[in-house]
Specification:
By secondary structure, this protein is mainly alpha-helical. The chain has five helices and no strands. The protein is elongated, with a radius of gyration of 17 Å.
């Protein structure tokens, strides 16, 4: 059962958390080209993937609790604790900042093509921070200090 839970954790990380981090970047390209409808769709998709990423979080707890005793894993294990904190920050950034900013920028652009539409910098910065935090989480999972 430990193997199944680990596979679910890693699988959802790849197929759910990955798009959660990448879709806003596609939204920035659509924003530059003036495609407001696509930006709204990508914002909605980012929100869905962000909420679905909670499955990865849940499967991670399952994998931790089913891990053999020899690994001595708990929520206070430093790499697990830091992974939880960084994931929570990335999740909150996506749900409460990136997605609303994408919707606001799509409405403000009005379908006009622009080099840097309104809100572009805020979306790029917050999504960049979120993606960077998720990369650090992956590195913590691999490195396990």
């Amino acid at each position: 059962m430990d193997t199944v839970m680990t596979i679910l954790h890693v699988g959802t990380a790849v197929f759910i958390v990955g798009p959660m981090a990448i879709l806003p970047m596609t939204g920035l390209r659509a924003l530059r080209s003036g495609n407001a409808g696509q930006v709204h769709t990508l914002a909605r998709s980012t929100a869905v993937f962000s909420w679905l990423s909670l499955l990865t979080f849940i499967f991670g707890f399952g994998a931790m609790s089913l891990a053999p005793e020899q690994y001595n894993l708990s929520m206070t294990t430093p790499w697990i604790l830091w992974s939880i904190i960084l994931y929570a920050i990335a999740f909150l950034l996506n749900v409460f900042f990136v997605v609303p900013q994408m919707n606001k920028a799509a409405e403000a652009s009005g379908g006009e093509k622009a080099a840097k539409p309104a809100g572009y910098g805020a979306i790029a910065a917050s999504n960049g921070i979120s993606a960077l935090l998720l990369v650090v989480v992956v590195l913590l999972m691999i490195w396990k200090p």
